């Protein structure tokens, strides 16, 4: 899968590039202990840092970064981003825009008193034929003060303009800076051809495999990581 990103030539030296998600894991995950004492059992248990599916979700796809620092104070968003004027007509210049509250009327979790923010994209994204772009909130990033809404764009066809990413602001009391490079959305290329759903009962062989695998997982930590996790290519 080749994914092509393009930007306004006047801004090429001023924009952080989209990054492979595995190259931008959050610091809290790196600092997280691999075991912690459980108050329920009184014993040390493995944390989600040792759960490959949890971490792999955070390592998959790519992240779109915030292009500059954004200061947030009492619900007010400000930035001081000194960039050249874009050379392409109709191109955004601000890192953020907004959706009026009425556009999300009836959506659970939306406060009708507040507008939704919209992260403007400064990169176009082109996928190979037959593939679409699944865009969602960065996986397991509950530390972020917003919740990016999920969308699917047919980016093999729609790729002449940037894709903007709406989000609900979830921490009204937040005061601070959203730093340049902060991931605002995580994206995956997904095949547009619908999957065929097949339903079967476990035969004797599959039933034996089920029991053996569950016993192995319960008996020894790291079975999934050692036996079922593909090696990631270096490069």
Q: Keywords for this structure?
A:
235 residues; alpha+beta; Deoxyuridine 5'-Triphosphate Nucleotidohydrolase, Chain A; 5-stranded antiparallel beta sheet
> End-to-end distance, in Å?
15 Å
Across the major sheet, the strand order is 2-5-16-11-13
Radius of gyration: 21 Å
| CATH class group | Mainly Beta
CATH-scheme architecture: Distorted Sandwich
Structure description:
The chain has 235 residues and is an alpha+beta fold. It has one domain: Deoxyuridine triphosphatase (dUTPase) (Deoxyuridine 5'-Triphosphate Nucleotidohydrolase, Chain A, Distorted Sandwich), CATH 2.70.40. The strands form 5 sheets. A 5-stranded antiparallel sheet has the order 2-5-16-11-13, with no helix packed on it. A 4-stranded antiparallel sheet has the order 8-9-14-12, with no helix packed on it. The radius of gyration is 21 Å and the shape is globular.
Short structural summary:
With 235 residues, the chain is an alpha+beta fold. The protein has helices at 27-31, 52-59, 204-219, 223-227; strands spanning 4-6, 19-20, 35-37, 44-46, 62-65, 70-73, 76-78, 96-99, 116-119, 124-126, 131-136, 146-148, 151-153, 165-169, 176-178, 183-191. The strands form 5 sheets. Strands 2-5-16-11-13 form a 5-stranded antiparallel beta sheet, with no helix packed on it. It has a 4-stranded antiparallel beta sheet with strand order 8-9-14-12, with no helix packed on it.
